[in-house]
Amino acid sequence: MISKSRVGVRYRMFTLLATLGLLLSMTLAACGDNTATPVPATTTAAATTSAATTAATTASGATSAAATTAAATGKFDGVIKFGAPLSLTGSLNNESKQTQNGYELWKEAVNNAGGIKIAGKAYSIDITYYDDESKQDKSAQLAEKLIKEDKVNFLLGPYGTNSTKTVSAIAEQYKIPMVEGNGAAESIFSQGYKYTFGVLSPSSNYLAGVVDALAAQSPKPKTVAILSANDNFSVEVADAAKKVAEKNGFQVVVYEKYPNAETNLTSQVAKVKDSNAEILLNSGHLNEAIAVVKAAKELKYSPVAMGFSVGPGLPEFADNLKADANYVLGGSQWTSAVKYKGTDIFASSQKYYDDYKKKFGVEPAYQAADGTACGLAFQYALEKAGTLDPTKVRDTLAGLDIMTFYGQIKFDDRGANIYKPMVVEQWQSGKKVTVWPNDVAETKMLFPTPAWDKRS
Amino acid sequence: MSLQNVVSGLLLGGMLALIGMGFSLVWGILNIVNLAHAPTIMFGAYITYYFYEGLHIDPFLALPITMGILAIFGFLLQQFLINRIIKSTLLITFLLTFGLEVMFVNLGRLIFSGVPRTVKTDYDSASFSFLSAEVSFKKLAGLGIALILTFLLYLFMSRTKIGNAIRATSMDLNAAKLMGINIANIYTVTYAISAALAGAAGALLSTWNSFTPDEFGKYNIRAFAVVVLGGLGSIPGALIGGLAFGFISEIIGGLTIGSGLDAFTLSPWKEGILFLSLVLVLIIRPQGLMGKEGYR
Amino acid sequence: MNIPNLFIMAVAIMLSIVASQRKNKMLGFAGLGVLALLLVAAPFISENKAPLIPIFILGLGAVGWNIIGGYTGYAAFGQVAFYGLGAYTVVLFGSKSRTPLPANSLSSIQDQTIGWSLPIAFILAAVIPAIIALLIGLPVLKLKGHYFAIATLGIAVATPQVIANIGCIGGTDQNPGFCLGLGTGLTMRPLPDDKEANLTQLYFLGLIAMTLAVFLLWYISRNKFGYGLFAIRENEEAASVMGVNTALFKNAAFVLAAALTGLAGAIQAMLQIQVAPNEDSIFNTSTSLYVIVICLLGGVGTVWGPFIGTFIFAFIREVLENMPKWFNNKGLIEWRDVIFGLIVVLMVLFLPKGIMQLVGNKGRFTWKIFLRNIRENSI
User: Fold this and answer.
1) Which terminus of chain C is more exposed, N or C, with fewer CB under 10 A?
2) Averaged pLDDT score across all residues of chain C
3) Chain A partners of B256 at a C-beta cutoff of 8 Å?
4) Strands A407-410 and A401-404
5) At residue A30, does pLDDT exceed 70?
6) pLDDT at A6 over 50
7) Residue A47 predicted with pLDDT over 60
8) Interface partners of B (3+ CB pairs, < 8 Å)?
C-alpha cells in the first residue's frame, strides 16, 4: 500500500517536472518575439525575422523577404509595429485574405522605399497578424494580445463589421489608434470612439451609387425590390438603399430580409418576380449574391438591372457565374479605373493594380485597396506627427486630408471617411468595368439588361 | 405563396431527403449521431467539382464515381475508427464525430481553399415552365436521383441478404449476434452506404449554389430535422421528412400576409420557425411524422 | 513580472491535478493552497491577463454542462443559447443608451438599451437564462438520449434567429426613442474608464464565480440532490420508482446549468463589448461543443473535471494560437483547427474518461490504459 502510493507520488512529480520543463522552453521561445520598439538596427534583424515572417507567409505564398533584408542591412533606425487580427480561416477568410494582401503590399512598398521617416529617422514597418477564425470573441482576445504581448504601436482593422466594433472598443480603451478599411457599418462610427478611423465609405453609400446611377438612365425604371441578409451591416445597407431609392423617385415594391448566409433564395426571388420589380437590389455577401443571380435566371426573371452591395467586386463572382455575371452592377469602394492623382507611393490606381498583380498574381479587389489605404493613412499621419506617440498620431489622423490612389482620405468628426465617393462597377462580357460616376467611368453602363433568353 | 413555392419546395425536398437518408441510416442502425456527415457531403461536392473542372466530366455522370469514392472513404473510417468506440456512450460517439467534422472541414479548407466554387454546366440555370412555375432541369434531375436512390436502397434493404442482416441488427442487436451476423461488418457496410449517399447529395449540391468548405456545417442540422420529421431509421420516412422540410421551408419563405411594403413576411424568420417547429415535433411526436415504433 | 499565460496555465493544470488527488490528503491540500495563490496572483504577474478570463468563461459553462450532462446524463448540445442570452441580458440591462442619431443620418438603425446598474445586469444575466431554461426544460426534458440532444441543438439554432428578428421592443421603428433594437446587436456603453482595473475585476468575477461553481458541483455531488441526479443518469425509471422526483430534479439541473452558462456569457459580453445575434458573434455553435470537450478532457461527471479540463483546453488553444509564431508561420494557421479536431478524436479514442485516468489510483503510467480503453469500446 505504502509503496504503491509512493510510486504514484513519484510518478506525478515526474510528470509535473517534465511538463514544466517542456513548457518553459516553449514559453521562452515565445518570449523571443517580444521586442521593445524602437529597437536599434543591429538587433532588429533577428527580432524582425520571426515577426516579419509571421506577417508575411499566409499572404498567398508571397513573402516579404524584402522588408527583412532591408532591416538586416541596417538601413532603418527602428521598427514600427502594426498588428491586425484578421479572418485567415472561417467564413470570411476569402475577403479577409484580400485585406491582408493590401496591408502586405503597403508594407513592402514602404519598406522598399526607405521606410517611414519620422523626425529625421527611418523606420521600417512590421505587421503582426493573428487569425480570429471569423469570430468576434476571438478578435477581442487577439487585439489584447497584439497590444499587450506583441506590443504593437498601432492597430490595423480586422475584417467585418462585428469584429471591427469589438476591436475599436479595445483600441479606444488602450488609446491606440486604429485605421480600418473593412467595417463599414455606420454603427461603428456612432459610438463616439476617438481612436477609430475608417478609410472606406460607410455602409449607407454601398448601394446609393447604384441607385443614383440607375436614376440617371433612360428610360428611367420605376420600381425597386430590395433583398437583404439579416445581419448588422447588410440591414444598414438595405435600409439606406431604400431611403435613397425613395428620394430618387423609385417605388420600393419589395423590401425583404432573409436569414444570414442563406443560399437557397428561390422563394425570395420568386416573390420579387411576382412583384414585377424593374430593379433588383441585394444587400448581402458573395455567396448570397451568386445565389440571387442563379435563382433569377432559373425563374426566368429579367429585371432591367441587378445591383449588389458585396459580390460583383470580387473576381470569384464571375468565376462562379461565368456569362451570367454580365450586366450585374455592384457598388465598389475602389476600382482600378478611378483616376485620382495621389501623392502616395502608388500614386495611381493603374500602378497599384500593376504592383498588386505582380506580387500576388491576381487582380486586386477593393478590399485590398481598403487595406492599403489604411496603411497610407497611418504613413502620412506618422510622418506629419513626427512622433510615435499614440495620442499625437490620433490627433494628426483626425486632421488628415490627403489624396491617394484610393481617393481622398479625410475623416469627419466620427472618424468615418464620407468624402470619398463609391463607384459602380458592371460586368461587361466577362470584364469588370467602372460605369459610374461619369467622371471616372471607363465606359457607358449597359442598360437595360436584356432578358435572359435574349442574351447572346 | 404560389405554385412556384410548391415546386421549389419539392425540388429542395428531394435534396434534403438524400442528405437525411444517409444520416438516418447511421443513426438508426449504429446509434451514432454522425456529425461527420456534413464533411462527407463537402467531399462529394469537391470531388464533383474537380471532376468537372479538371476532367470535364458532367456532374451527373460523375455521380456514381463520387459515390464509390466516398463509400470507400466511409468504409475505411468506420472500419478503423468508429468501430473502435462504437460501444461507448452517446456522448463519446458524438464527440468523436465532432472531432472528425472539425478535422475534415479544416482539411477541406487546406486542400480546396476557401474560394467559393460552383459546378457551372451549360444547362446550369435551364428551366421549363410548368403552369405558372419554373422548374429547373438540374434540380428535377436531382429529385429523380433522390427517388431512384431511395428505391434502390429500399430494394437493397428488403431483398438482399446483407440488407436483411442490417435490418435485423437494427431491430435487435443481440438476436442478430446470436444468428451469426458479424456486427462489425454490418456497421461498416451501413456506414459506407451512408457516406455514398452523402456523396451523392454533395455532388448534386455542387451544381446548385456556390460553396466553400465552411458552408456544409448547416447540413448536419438540416439532416437532423429531416430525420426527426420523417422518423428515425426509416428510408421512406427520410424521403417524406425531406420533402416536408423542403416544402415547409419554401412556403414560409414565400408567405406574405397583407400587401405592399407593410406586408408581414416570414422570410427572415425561416430558420427560427423551422427549428422551433422541429423541437415541437420532437415533443409532440418523438417518433416523427411518419415513424412507427419498430418500423424500418 | 511578465510571465506568459502559457506558463501560468501549465502550472495551474499540474497543481489542480495534484490538488484533486484524494489519496494523499496533505499533498492535495498543499496543491490546492498553491493553486489558490497562483490564481489570485495570476492577473498581476501575467503579461496579458485578458486571455486568462475566457478560461473561467468556458469553465463556468463547462461546470454548468457537467451538472446536466455529466451528473444527470442529459447530453445538452445547445448551451450556447443560454450563453448568448446571458450576454445579451447583461448588455441590454447594463449598457447606457446612445444619444439618438442626428435627423439627417441615413441610418435609422438604433441599438437602445435599458441601462440599469451592472451588478443588477449580471444577476439578471443568470436569472433570465434560468427562467427560459425552465420554460424550455419542462417539455424538452421529457425527451431522452439523442432526441433531447437534438431538441437542445434546435433551440440553440433558433434562439439567435428569434433575437435577430425582434427588431424593436417597446417602440416602433418610426419612434425609436423607446425602441430596444435587439436585432442588429447591442454595444456596451460607456466603456470602462480604466481598462486594466476592469480586466482585473472581470478576472476575479470569473475566478470567484468559477470557485463557487466548482464548490456547488462538489456540494451537489454529496447530497440528496446529487444522488438523485446520479440515479437518473444510471436508470431514470428505477430512480423514479425509488422516490426521486425525476422531473423536478432534471429541471433543477437544467436551470442551474443555464444560470451558470448565462453568467459565463455575460462575462464574455464585457470582454467583447458588442454582441450580435449571429453565428460569428456570441451565438457560436462551437461554444456548445467546447464546454463538452472541456468536461471530456477533465473527466465527465466529476467535480474536478471541468476545472482541470478548462485549463487544459485553454492551454491547448494557447499553444495552437502561438504555434505559427514559433514555427515561423509556415502555413500552420491552417493546420491549427485540424490539430484541434485530431486532439478531440485521439482523446475520445484513447482517454474517454479524461486526463485523470493517466494519474488515477493506479499510480504508474502504462500504455495499457490506452489499449484497454480501445478494447473496451471497440466491436
Assistant:
1) N
2) 85
3) 271
4) antiparallel
5) no
6) no
7) no
8) A, C
Going by C-alpha positions, the residue among C149, C91, C155 that lies closest to residue C122 is C91
Q: Are A93 and B5 inside 8 Å of each other by CB?
A: no
What tens digit of pLDDT does each residue of C125-149 get?
A: 999 999 999 999 999 998 888 788 8
Q: How confident is the model at residue A18 (pLDDT cuts 50, 70, 90)?
A: low
Chain A neighbours among B 40-79 (CB < 8 Å)? Answer: none
Q: Which of C11, C106, C111 sits opposite A204 (nearest CB)?
A: C106
Residue C169 reports pLDDT greater than 70: no
Q: Which helix or strand (DSSP H or E) is residue C252 part of?
A: helix C246-272
Three-state DSSP state, A343:
coil
A5: pLDDT confidence band, cut at 50, 70 and 90?
A: very low
Give the contacts of C175 (CB within 8 A, at least 6 positions apart): none
* pLDDT tens figures, B68-90: 999 999 999 999 999 998 888 88
Does residue C168 contact residue B238 with C-beta atoms inside 8 Å? Answer: no
Chains that touch C (3 or more CB pairs under 8 A): A, B
Residue B197 has pLDDT above 90, yes or no: yes
List A residues 378-397 in contact with C (Cβ-Cβ < 8 A). Answer: none
Q: Do B116 and A266 touch (CB under 8 A)?
A: no
Question: Is C285 in Cβ contact with B84 (below 8 Å)?
Answer: no
Give the pLDDT confidence of C309-318 residue by residue, as tens digits: 999 999 988 8
Nearest CA in chain A to B115: A94
Is the CB of B183 less than 8 angstroms away from the CB of C161? no
Is residue B272 within 8 angstroms of chain C, CB to CB? yes
- Report phi then psi at B115, rounded to 5: -70, 130
Q: A5 contacts in C (CB within 8 Å)? A: 23-24, 363
Please report which confidence band the pLDDT of residue A45 belongs to, taking 50, 70 and 90 as the band edges: very low
Per-residue pLDDT at A73 exceeds 80: no
Q: Which of A162, A186, A191 sits opposite C281 (nearest CB)?
A: A162
**Cβ pair C340:B102 closer than 8 A:** yes
List of chain C residues whose C-beta atoms are within 8 Å of the C-beta of residue A54: 324-325, 328-329
Question: A434 phi and psi, to 5 degrees?
Answer: -90, 130
> Could you tell me which of A46, A48, A45, A43 has the C-alpha nearest to residue A150?
A48
Q: Quick one: angle between helices A2-31 and C305-326, nearest 10?
A: 40
CB contact under 8 A, B275 and C158: yes
Q: What does the longest C-alpha to C-alpha distance in chain A come to?
A: 96
What is the maximum span of chain C, computed from C-alpha positions, in angstroms? 74
- B188 and B32 Cβ atoms separated by less than 8 Å: no
- Are residues C280 and A160 in contact, defined by beta-carbon separation less than 8 angstroms? yes
Which segment of A47-51, A234-238, A375-379, B197-201 scores lowest on mean pLDDT?
Answer: A47-51
Shortest Cα–Cα distance, A208 to chain C (Å): 10
Backbone φ, ψ for residue A97 (5° rounding): -60, -40
* Residue C154 and residue B279 in contact, taking contact as beta carbons nearer than 8 Å: yes
Mean pLDDT, chain A, integer: 82
Contact B100 C345 (CB under 8 A): yes
As a whole number of angstroms, the distance between CA A405 and CA A364 comes to: 13
